[in-house]
Amino acid sequence: MRLLALLAVAVLLTVVQAKAQVYEPYDGYDEYGGYDYDDPYSPYPPPPYYDPAPRYQEPLYDRREPSTRSARGNIVIATREHTLIYTTASGEQFAYPIAVGREGKQWYGSTRVVSKRMHPEWRPTASMRQKNPRLPAVVKAGPANPLGTRAIYLADGLLRIHGTNDPSSIGTNASSGCFRIYREDVEELYEMVQPGTRVIVQR
């Protein structure tokens, strides 16, 4: 009887831990050929709206007084400053703190926005699931999703500007190439930026 009780407790603990799984932020940029884990061209609709309590931190500076100049209608990412600057068509500028790629995972150059997605699903690649068999095929929108509530796709889906489930990483070199941004900031930027917007990534 005592053995059965212990076995029941062990099973219960396993189930609780499985439900509490939180997936570490991952951008997938180093998984070449694997951007299908969240294909920006996929026809399926976004999952139902999920609105967890925001984990937003106020930027350390005024978002409307960026230190880098940009042409109208463009996004400029200043990697060393961990700052993303969007200049609207009317000339108004918004600057946001971001996380950038770790050393060896950074990309520089000019690209463009190709698509956007609200409440993106995270789809680990086959190689990622092989390395970590506990990863599911799909992580739905919610607090465990490493992409946050919005994703803006660049360069045919290989790079993204997206939210994060780890706001403490903002302002650091933490990602695998993509650009993480606070939840309220990415939701604001998402509404302003349209496909075709030029994106310039500087050192």
The fraction of residues assigned to DSSP E strands is 15-25%
Subunit organisation of the chains:
single chain
Q: Write the element-wise H/E pattern from the N-terminal end onward.
A: HEEEEHEEEEHE
Helix/strand structural class: alpha/beta
Gross morphology is elongated
Query: What Rg, in angstroms, do the CA atoms define?
Result: 19 Å
Strand order of the largest sheet: 1-2-3-8-6-5-4-9
Number of strands: 9
Distance between the termini: 65 Å
Task: Please tally the helical runs, counting DSSP H or I stretches of 4 or more residues.
Answer: 3
Low-pLDDT residue spans = 15-20, 29-67
Largest sheet: 8 strands, mixed, barrel
Average pLDDT across residues? 76
The level of helicity is 10-25%
What is the topological layout?
Layout: H1 2-19, E1 74-78, E2 83-87, E3 93-101, E4 109-118, H2 126-131, E5 150-154, E6 159-162, E7 173-175, E8 179-181, H3 183-192, E9 198-202
Parallel strand pairs: 1-9, 3-7, 6-8
Antiparallel strand pairs: 1-2, 2-3, 3-8, 4-5, 4-9, 5-6
Task: Characterise this structure.
- It is a single chain.
- With 203 residues, the chain is of the alpha/beta class.
- It contains three helices and nine strands; from the N terminus they run αββββαββββαβ.
- It has helices spanning 2-19, 126-131, 183-192; strands at residues 74-78, 83-87, 93-101, 109-118, 150-154, 159-162, 173-175, 179-181, 198-202.
- An eight-stranded mixed β-barrel has the order 1-2-3-8-6-5-4-9.
- Mean pLDDT is 76; it is low at 15-20 and 29-67.
